[in-house]
Every structure is written in structure tokens, then in C-alpha cells.
Design brief:
Layout lengths: L28 E5 L2 E4 H8 L10 H23 L6 H18 L3 H14 L2 E11 L10 H15 L4 H10 L5 E9 L6 H7 L11 E2 L3 E12 L3 E9 L10 H20 L4 H8 L22 H8 L11 E3 L2 E11 L4 H13 L4 H4 L1 H10 L3 E2 L1 H10 L8 H7 L5 E5 L2 E4 H10 L8 H28 L2 H24 L3 H18 L2 E3 L1 H5 L12
Helix pairs in contact: 2-18, 3-18, 4-11
Length: about 550
């Protein structure tokens, strides 16, 4: 980003110590190993992370100096072997550095709050009916009017007393109408478009919404019922299918044989015969039968409806339901276990991965976006944005005609970090990065604009990480040396028999001291007290 000012904000996060010397003071050399100077800051960083080290105790200090020197000797040996030049090493270090930077470019507390809000929604499952008036992809503002009017007309019919289902089915019956009527028996969070979900979870039961716009079109919605999420259950089942027509029996004979077999197996299961053995013997389910009828855990909406309805009536492990028919045949179901709603900690990662990849990322990163805008003095100019919004009435933001006009606009659109960003600079960004989940022009513009701001503040943060977080360099250095230490130590000592490792370690340290010259700066160590914050505590 041209013209951006570098950030010089000094922040220390998450550590219970800090260095008493400032950036203006020289970082003394505490040790030289094979001609390479080791700064005191690195020595202190590692020492003060180890609760067993007391730098103000002479014996403890000397023990740590020896340990630190041996550590650096091993790292030097690894570098002399070229381990740090391998592709695997470079990739691992780069991955760690990227993850560390990412940890600074986020608001974990805000993200956790957003994830918990979704998790709390998950305690309820909705049954929703909706009428969808489909819009074509990439719809400009003026073209949405006809679709809205059609949806609103249906809404007025329902408000006048007509049945919601009857109106929806009548409209959907015309294949050319572009209308879909649908019942969603079990709606969970994150299963549908955000705008749809937000309205569904806020609607009172039985109330019909006014037209709701999503990326698919306009919806009229009605929540039929709300039930408490029963969690997941695991069952085993035995599937009995009818005899084939080519068996030589007539239909009545086949049906009798079929029902006799169902009742026979059911009675055996009820009388206590081993269910797994019965499944292996009688079940026609080729996947679960050989495994004793065992099925993976499932929740409401995961199985065909008659099967799951019968399964969820079972409350006590070991209980067996009466045979239930589905399109596959008859099932004899045994409950193995019930699990209440999965704890947040087990769902957190899955919710995060879903939210970060689509339109919900704005909910996930909302606190970060707002924090960064405030930090960099964000000012928004509505009048300039309205000029761009008006272009959306006639052109989709990815159209060449939109860019041709927007690129000529020069009003200040926003102010950030002391810089004015004109409309045409955002137009250039939009032209280069036209990525959005939205199909309505105004929503598309809004979403890309929010990404524009996020990209700028993230770039500012990246440039200022080492100034804002002085521990960053030390953490990367610590990881760098840690990888080398592991590789070289594993080769020389750790992969050898346990009884030989102490002797090999001693011999190796002696060899390294002879191979690489070391010099300890005793003057710095003697005055180490002045380099340590006097109020820091272990």
C-alpha cells in the first residue's frame, strides 16, 4: 500500500517479565560461540521463561550459563552440518512464523465469543417452512424490485388469512414461476445462509416473516416449531428386506415370509439373544451387518425420518424399538448410548472452520475489525460511499462499466492511519479482488469494502509486528534453535539405547567444547542485576 506510514507502537503482551533496557540502549553480548555473538536479550528471554532459574543467585546463574552454552554449541554443530538449509527445516520455520504472526493479527477473545454465540444457538433445532422467490445470480438493485413485489404480494395474501402452505404450494406448482416451497424439518446453525438463519432464530413460532433477502432471492418464512437439541445417539440395527420377486413365491407368500422373518428376529432380540450375532446372521445391510449392526452416532436430520423417529424414542441403552419400516425395508433398532449436546470445546474447531470460510467470517472477525479501525483512527464518508452504491443500481460491481465509472471518482471514501483513501483506490481494489459470497450488487459492494479495510489494517499490523511485539523475534529464534537442537541431538544421543545416552551426551559436550571456541562475557554477567526488571517475579 503506497504512502502508508510505519507503525511505532511498543506493546508487550502475555509475558510476566520485560527487559529493563530500551531499544535505544545497546544489547550487550553475553557470550560468543564459534565467533557468533549471542545478545544478552536472547539469554534473558530464555532464562526468564524457566522458573527453575534464579539469575540473581550466583550458583543458579552459573548452572544456567553452562546449560545455555551447551545449547548454543549444539545449535552451532547443527548449523555446521547444514541442517538449517534443508527444505524441511525452512518450511517448518516459515510455517511457525506465519502462525505466530497470525496469532497477533486476531482477537481471540472476540472470536471465542462469536463461536460461543453459534454454539448457544445449537441448543435449539428449528422446523421451518419457507417460500423462496428465486433471483438470478449477480442481480443489480433495480432488478430486485419485481422479485420483492412478487414476494410481498404473497405475504399480503397470507396476512389476509390465506394458508401459508397452500400459497407456497400453489406458487411452486408453476414450473416457470421461479418459486420454491420447502419444509426444513431440522434446521441447525450454520446450515443455511446467514440472513435466513438470523431471521429464523428470531421469529416467534407460527409468525410469518415479511420478505427476507438472501443470496438466493426473497424468502417468506414461518417457524413451525422449536425443539431442544437432544444430542446424538448411537444404535445398532438389523435390516430385513423382502424376498426377491424371482424367489418363485407369489406376493402374499413373500409378504408372509417377510413378516415372519421380521417377527422372528425381533423376538430373538427381545428375548436377550446377542444382538450383534443376530445382525451378522440376518441383516441385509452389507456395511453394518458384519460389524454387529453398529452405526455411527447421529443426530436429528441425519437419517431417514421413520428410522430416526423410532431411534430417538429409545431412552435407555439396551432398549430395542419395535420394527420400523423405511424405503429400505424393516429395521430392528437397539440403543447403545446417548450423548447430550457435544461440549463447546469439542465443537469449537468445527464451528471456527465453517465460519472463517464464508460470509460468517465477518461475525467471526468482527471484534478484530472494529478494534483495528479504532486503533488506526478510521473515519467513514457516507456521501462518497453512496456514489458507489448508486452505481450498483445499474451495474454489478464486477462489470467493466462499474469499474470504468468508479475509477473516475475521487472523493475521500475513508480515512485510516492518517491517510485519505479515495473512491477510485477502492475501485482498483475491487477490480483486482472481486471476491464475495453475495449475488446482490449492493451486498457484494459492502462485503468487498469490509475486506478492503481488513486488508489494509492487517498489512499495517504485519509491518509493525516486531515494533509492537518485541518478543516476536525471540520466539522465532527460540523455535529456530529448538528445531536444530532436536535434529542434532536425536542423531547423536536420543535415538541411541537409553543406558548409553548419559555417556554419549558427556562425550559429545566435550567434543563440542574442543571443536568450537566459546567466550563468556563475565563483566555483563557480574552486572546482570541492572538488566533485569527489579519488580519482575518468577
Amino acid at each position: 500500500m503506497k504512502g502508508m506510514k510505519k507503525i511505532f507502537v511498543f506493546v508487550i503482551l502475555g509475558f510476566n517479565f520485560y527487559f529493563a533496557y530500551s531499544q535505544e540502549k545497546k544489547d550487550p553480548v553475553v557470550m560468543t560461540v564459534a565467533g557468533k555473538e549471542i545478545p544478552l536479550s536472547e539469554f534473558l528471554f530464555l532464562a526468564q521463561k524457566d522458573s527453575s532459574v534464579d539469575l540473581l543467585n550466583k550458583k543458579s546463574l552459573e548452572n544456567y550459563v553452562t546449560l545455555f552454552k551447551n545449547f548454543k554449541l549444539k545449535v552451532t554443530e547443527a548449523e555446521s552440518l547444514g541442517i538449517h538449509k534443508s527444505r524441511a527445516f525452512e518450511d517448518e520455520l516459515a510455517n511457525y512464523s506465519a502462525q505466530l504472526k497470525a496469532s497477533y493479527l486476531s482477537d481471540k477473545e472476540g472470536e471465542t465469543k462469536a463461536l460461543r454465540e453459534v454454539y448457544e444457538k445449537n441448543k435449539d433445532i428449528l422446523s421451518v417452512s419457507h417460500i423462496l422467490f428465486l433471483m438470478p445470480p449477480q442481480t443489480v438493485s433495480k432488478d430486485t424490485v419485481a422479485f420483492y413485489n412478487k414476494a410481498y404480494e404473497a405475504y399480503q395474501q397470507i396476512m389476509a388469512g390465506e394458508d401459508f402452505t397452500a400459497v407456497g404450494q400453489a406458487l411452486a406448482a408453476d414450473e416457470k414461476s421461479g418459486v420454491i416451497y420447502e419444509n426444513l424439518d431440522y434446521l441447525y446453525p450454520l446450515q443455511t445462509l446467514k440472513a435466513f438463519e438470523d431471521v429464523a432464530y428470531s421469529l416467534p413460532i407460527g409468525v410469518v416473516s415479511s420478505p427476507v433477502r438472501t443470496a438466493k432471492g426473497f424468502h417468506l418464512m414461518r417457524v413451525n416449531k422449536k425443539i431442544t437439541n437432544p444430542g446424538k445417539i448411537q444404535v445398532a440395527h438389523i435390516l430385513i428386506v423382502p424376498p426377491p420377486e424371482e424367489s418363485g413365491l407369489d406376493e402374499d407368500e413373500r409378504n408372509k415370509l417377510f413378516m415372519d422373518r421380521i417377527n422372528e428376529v425381533y423376538e430373538k432380540a427381545k428375548s436377550g439373544e446377542d444382538f450383534a450375532t443376530l445382525a451378522k446372521t440376518y441383516s441385509s445391510d452389507d456395511k453394518s451387518g458384519p460389524n454387529g449392526g453398529l452405526l455411527p452416532s447421529f443426530g436429528l436430520g441425519d437419517m431417514v425420518k421413520p428410522f430416526e423417529q423410532a431411534a430417538f424414542t429409545l431412552m435407555i441403552p439396551g432398549e430395542i424399538a419395535e420394527p420400523v419400516r423405511t424405503r429400505y425395508g424393516y429395521h430392528i433398532i437397539k440403543l447403545l448410548n446417548r450423548k447430550e449436546r457435544v461440549p463447546f470445546e469439542e465443537m469449537e474447531r468445527g464451528i471456527y472452520m465453517t465460519m472463517k470460510q464464508g460470509e460468517r467470517n465477518f461475525d467471526l472477525y468482527k471484534s478484530f475489525d472494529e478494534r483495528e479501525k479504532k486503533k488506526y483512527g478510521y473515519v467513514f464518508y457516507q456521501e462518497a460511499y453512496d456514489d458507489l452504491q448508486r452505481l450498483c443500481d445499474d451495474y454489478f460491481p464486477t462489470d467493466t462499466a462499474f469499474y470504468d465509472q468508479a475509477s473516475k471518482l475521487t472523493k475521500t471514501l475513508m480515512h485510516l492511519n492518517g491517510i485519505d483513501f479515495p473512491q477510485n483506490e477502492f475501485a482498483e481494489y475491487l477490480n483486482r479482488y472481486p471476491f464475495s459470497t453475495k449475488t446482490y450488487s449492493g451486498d457484494f459492494l459492502s462485503e468487498v469494502y469490509r475486506l478492503f479495510i481488513r486488508d489494509i489494517v492487517t498489512e499495517l499490523d504485519k509491518r509493525g509486528i516486531e515494533e509492537q511485539h518485541p518478543e516476536f523475534h525471540q520466539l522465532v529464534k527460540e523455535y529456530h534453535d529448538g528445531i536444530l537442537l532436536f535434529e542434532v541431538s536425536n542423531n547423536r544421543v536420543w535415538d541411541k539405547p537409553l543406558e548409553d545416552q548419559a555417556r554419549l551426551e558427556e562425550e559429545w559436550i566435550k567434543e563440542l567444547n574442543e571443536k568450537f571456541e566459546t567466550e563468556v562475557n563475565r563483566k555483563v554477567l557480574k552486572n546482570i542485576r541492572k538488566y533485569i526488571n527489579p519488580i519482575s517475579k518468577k
